[in-house]
Amino acid sequence: MTVVTDHRLGEPCWVDYAASDLPRAQEFYTSLFGWTAETGGGEYGGYVTFRRDGHLVAGLGEAMEGAQPNAWLTYLLVEDADAGAKAVANAGGTILSPTMTVGDQGRLAVAADPGGAVIGLWEPAQHRGFELVAEAGGLSWHELYARDYAAQVEFYKRVFGWTTAVLGDTADFRYETFGDPDSPSGGVFDADGMLPPGVPSHWVVYFGVTSAADAAARVVELGGTVVRDPWDSEFGRFAQVTDPLGGLFFVHEVPGSIA
Known about the structure:
The protein is an alpha+beta fold. It contains four helices and 16 strands. It folds into two domains: 12-124, 2,3-Dihydroxybiphenyl 1,2-Dioxygenase, domain 1 (Roll); 139-253, 2,3-Dihydroxybiphenyl 1,2-Dioxygenase, domain 1, CATH 3.10.180.10. The protein has helices at 22-33, 81-90, 149-160, 212-221; strands at 12-19, 36-39, 48-52, 55-62, 71-77, 94-102, 106-112, 118-124, 139-146, 164-169, 174-180, 183-190, 202-209, 225-233, 236-242, 248-253. Strand 11 and strand 12 form a beta hairpin. The termini are close together.
């Protein structure tokens, strides 16, 4: 089991889901991934924390009615949320939610990069981030679908100190990974020619599963939708799905998973 206790600065450290129907979302994800759910007190607005085998994986909160889609949000680790928000604004990003303190857990801000992709900034205190990676029921990858690829890559390099490596640089596949070259945290995909009209740049999350085909079938049983049937690539076997509320995510068949 791969358990992470420290995350690298500027890289994904947490994900949570904004849902218009918390009970339905909680039932779907606990049933699909074998997660357990713990609901916080009133000071946290009923925020739900998911765990797998006792390890932190993700969160769930209530979407603001009419102003927020049912969607996953990726948070990048920062030393200082105020300084991070200022750097975002100075680099051409937009602050959507000013820095706020979350009890004794940490401080956050929510922003949009210059291409319009929404991203969270997290300055940890007691809450250090997700712990289970590259395992069934844990996070396996983070990806930015970029409409303004070059500008967005440069934005993250400037604001979050990313080191990137080119994985592909053709008209059909332009992609850079970020993080330690031997153990990257995620990637940026030039998706301008692939995304439907009106769909902005956005981050997507991948969760590990033992079988992409079984997970896709289970998604349908639980009321979700398979957007793209399981497929094989040189990077693994995947499926693209949505939950019953329309939230998009990927499942990734993780080698060696036993659960």
